[in-house]
Write a structure and sequence with these properties.
The chain has 122 residues and is of the alpha+beta class. It is 34% helix and 15% strand. The strands form two sheets. The chain has a two-stranded antiparallel ribbon with strand order 1-2. The chain has a two-stranded parallel sheet with strand order 3-4.
Length: 122
C-alpha cells in the first residue's frame, strides 16, 4: 500500500498493517504493535471466537466500529462457522477513514453502499 506525504495521518504499525491518527484527538486508532495484531490479541483470541464458531452460530456486538479492523478480522474467521456482527459507531466519518486505508475492502464498500442505519452526529 502506497500513501503520499499528504496522508500524514496514516501510520504504518510494527506488524506492517496501517492505522490512522485521529485528526481531532491526535491518537492512533490502533496500537503501534499493529492493527491486525491488536485485533487478534484483544478481540479474536480472548473471545475464543474460533472455538465458539466451531460449536455453532456466534453473534457479536462491536461497540466502536472505528476503521473496521476488528470486524474484518472476525469475518476472516467466519469460515469456522456462522457469524453475525452488529456494530455501532458514533462518528459518521469513521467509515470514510476506514476506506482511506482499505479502499477495496468488501466489508467497508458494502457498508458505504447500504448506510441505512446511520444518524448524523449531533
Amino acid at each position: 500500500m502506497n500513501f503520499s506525504s499528504e496522508d500524514s495521518n496514516i501510520v504504518k504499525t510494527a506488524d506492517g498493517s496501517f492505522t490512522l491518527r485521529h485528526p481531532d484527538l491526535g491518537e492512533t486508532y490502533h496500537a503501534q504493535e499493529g492493527a491486525q495484531s491488536e485485533a487478534h490479541s484483544k478481540f479474536i483470541t480472548p473471545s475464543h471466537l474460533r472455538e465458539r464458531l466451531l460449536k455453532g452460530p456466534v453473534r457479536i456486538l462491536d461497540v466502536g466500529f472505528g476503521l473496521g479492523v476488528n470486524c474484518r478480522e472476525a469475518l476472516l474467521t467466519e469460515g469456522f462457522g456462522p457469524l453475525h456482527i452488529d456494530s455501532v459507531e458514533v462518528e459518521p466519518e469513521a467509515l470514510e477513514r476506514g476506506l482511506l486505508l482499505f479502499p477495496d475492502d468488501p466489508l467497508l464498500l458494502n457498508l458505504q453502499r447500504n448506510r441505512v442505519h446511520t444518524r448524523p452526529h449531533r
